[in-house]
Predict the 3D structure of the following.
Amino acid sequence: MKAPIQLTVNQKEYALEVEPSAMLLEVLRDQLKLKSVHRGCLEGECGVCTVLLNSEPVNSCLILAVQADGAKIITLEGLLKHGELHPLMKSFVENLGFQCGYCTSGFLMTAYSLLNNSKKPTEEEIRKGIEGNLCRCTGYVNIVKSIQAAAEEKDSGNWW
């Protein structure tokens, strides 16, 4: 028997019927077709499935969809504004904060939350803040650099 849930995803409201055992990751990807929410380890270790759940970064592979009933969720698609990249996304492009790109959406969502909750984080605070996100391609140097540059943009008032 399916369970009814209501979600606000990227400022759009949804009334859904989900299997009681369905993970939020599956609902976002398979039912709502939000492909920025990647499948990774499915154990909460890699961070590629990170979304903001009521403004907090969470691994969507660890949250049952029914647990998110009534929640406000933001995915990477929610950072776009009329098709324009968010300043944080632009910073990752400009500072080469990605290589293969598979982990990038998780890093972006974690960094977005970090920057919204910290005026100007230090390098140490950034590294601590992204601990739950793994990248096999980079040494994290350009990821940190991208987040630092985005913090400067935010500080200058160029932030949505």
The chain has a mean pLDDT of 96. The longest helix spans residues 141-155. Residues 87-155 form a domain with the DNA polymerase; domain 1 fold (CATH 1.10.150.120). The chain is about 30% helix and 15% strand.
